[in-house]
Amino acid sequence: MTDEFEQVFGSVAAGVWAAPGRVNLIGEHTDYNDGFVLPIALPHAVKVAAAPRTDGRLRLYSKQGDDRITDIELGALAPGAPNSWAGYPAGVVWALREAGHQVGGADLYFDSDVPGGAGLSSSAALECATAIAYRDLYQLDLSAAELAVLSQRAENAFVGVPCGVMDQMASACCEDGAALFLDTRDLSWRQVPLRLAEQGLALLVIDTRVKHDLGDGAYAGLRAGCEGAAELLGLAALRDLPEAGLAEALAALPSELAPLVRHVVTEDARVLRAIELLDKGEFAALGPILTAGHASQRDDFAISCAESDLAVRTALAAGALGARQTGGGFGGSVIALVPQELAAAVGTAVHNAFTTAGFTTPVSFLATPSRGAHRLA
Question: How far apart are CA 317 and CA 320, in angstroms?
Fold first, then answer.
């Protein structure tokens, strides 16, 4: 990283930082409803070599980009400009300055092995890598959670994606060997041990290769529907609707909003049930919760796709204990909780099923709960 930084920018990097992508075990589309989520950080990460500048310019280069430097004057930073991948790190710098932090320019060189468009939060990893690098470059007194919130603001207000805070909190705050049980209303969290291998289990991630784009309007429409339903029910957020009152609430809502509410309320309940099981060490019992979560995404939230549904069905038939689409939806990745000895067979079964169906060949890998954003060198 430091050698490549010097080749691109002609100067010496001050350090190298990394921030991971994430897999969400359960708790989909609950974060912007003030609900509960349970993500883990992936070993896959965005890395950034960085050095400060004193001339008020921000220069950005990605090894996965178009082989050119994006050069921006800090005073010209504004929502929507730049509107390429560079908008994510530029948005973080903008958010820091908007929040009153005295930060100048920088040269930033990025390299990533987080699959893009796979529902694994490559954008949050890009934002959080930038945020932690800037924190250290400019000696800012900011916690991991504060970096996450600033990164979310960059994505919401600068890039224009109305995401919740789960992805950034996972990228910034997760720890090795644990899932992050997060209450998105007050940002309280705790690390929940998740050492699957000790129980003979593995988490298989299946990238369906169906690229999703949360900025295309569908995500915003779902969020608006949830917020509109909460307003009709007189609630601050759907998190405040107890599962016991769900049937009565659904009867009072327009038919197009009722399924959204049912998903969010039952998904919050699934997160809490998952926590009970993890606290008791009953990891295998997570399987049916994952599968129920997928059915809710497919039938109530309507954010699944043919490839995701096929991956889930095939994984279950091949011996997975549970499986579901993870991430914002409309494609991306599927996770399957599998006995370790069946992981390869499940991956092969999904690969063969996609070939038979004429779908793009999926990519599978095992995910281990990993560390959040940190300095590498």
Answer: 7
The active-site residue out of 31, 107, 111, 167 is 167
The answer, as to whether pTM is greater than 0.85, is: yes
User: Tens-of-pLDDT digits for all 377 residues of the chain?
Assistant: 999 999 999 999 999 999 999 999 999 999 999 999 999 999 999 999 999 999 999 999 999 998 899 999 999 999 998 989 999 999 999 999 999 999 999 999 999 999 988 889 999 999 999 999 999 999 999 999 999 999 999 999 999 999 999 999 999 999 999 999 999 999 999 999 999 999 999 999 999 999 876 656 888 999 999 999 999 999 999 999 999 999 999 999 999 999 999 999 999 999 999 999 999 999 999 999 999 999 999 999 999 999 999 999 999 999 999 999 999 898 999 999 999 999 999 999 999 999 999 999 999 999 999 999 999 99
Q: Identify the CATH number of the domain defined by range 195-367.
A: 3.30.70.890
Residue 75 — φ and ψ, nearest 5°? -65, -15
Q: In whole angstroms, what is the distance from residue 108 CA to residue 97 CA?
A: 17
- Total residues found in the chain within this entry: 377
Residue 127's nearest CA partner among 9, 17, 213, 218 is 17
What is the four-CA torsion angle of 373, 152, 42, 83, rounded to 10 degrees? -100
| The amino acid at 252 | A
Helices (H) and strands (E) in the chain, counts: 11, 12
> What CATH number does the domain located at 2-192 have?
3.30.230.10
Residue pair 323/336 in contact by the 8 Å Cβ criterion: yes
Distance CA(35)–CA(227), nearest Å, equals 13
Domain range annotation of the chain: 2-192, 195-367
DSSP, collapsed to helix, strand or coil, labels residue 209 as strand
Sequential DSSP letters for 240-284: GS-GGGHHHHHHTS-TTTHHHHHHHHHHHHHHHHHHHHHHTT-GG
Q: Could you give the CA distance from residue 127 to residue 158 in angstroms, rounded to a whole number?
A: 12
**167: annotated active-site residue:** yes
